[in-house]
Amino acid sequence: MTTIRVLLADDQKLLVASFRMLIESAPDLEVVGEAATGREAVELARTTRPDVVLMDVRMPDLDGIEATRRITGDQDLTQVKVLILTTFELDENILHALRAGASGFLSKGVEPASLLDGIRQVAGGESLLSPKATRTLISRFLREPASGPPQASALESLTPREKEIVALVAVGLSNDAIAERLYVSPLTAKTHINNAMGKLGARDRAQLVVLAYQSGLVRADEPR
Prior knowledge:
By secondary structure, the protein is of the alpha/beta class. It contains ten helices and five strands, in the order E-H-E-H-E-H-E-H-E-H-H-H-H-H-H. A five-stranded parallel sheet has the order 2-1-3-4-5, sandwiched between helices.
């Protein structure tokens, strides 16, 4: 059994202690470090090479968004996934965290089993984006200035089927739901998603979501 290595980044010591106890109670998970500031999280990510960083948005020295950007932008840390912790599911800062490369987010009040499953999911290359939260967050995202104009040409390398599947990923559908919608196997759906990620240079499904909306492939007000 492969052990998933987790780095905890939060300045609330009691919360970190609780998360450590919970995570280490799972036979397939282990905590490899604790960071109390964003800068420390980046440094520990580089030295411990965790599979997943459980990152608080609001931290001293360097906030979680900038720390996420530095981790996901480091070519030596391409396998490290960042899972954002937030007090509110629709915290506007989550938008910027996703843009910075986070793989998704969890509420700090999440059920223990959901936290463990979320870590496993992100470590496996999935994203944690509920359909409701995704649509609301992206709607806000599109009303804010981005670092550059949306590029529809970014999707030109995709086949029609890949574009169709990326659009379904963008509204929060799982592999099984996509497979059912398109009358294909879940494995086929996953293969198309992986191919699209490779062509677009996306780290995971969360990045596919951002690209789909930013390129205009999907609009926040479209029914699905």
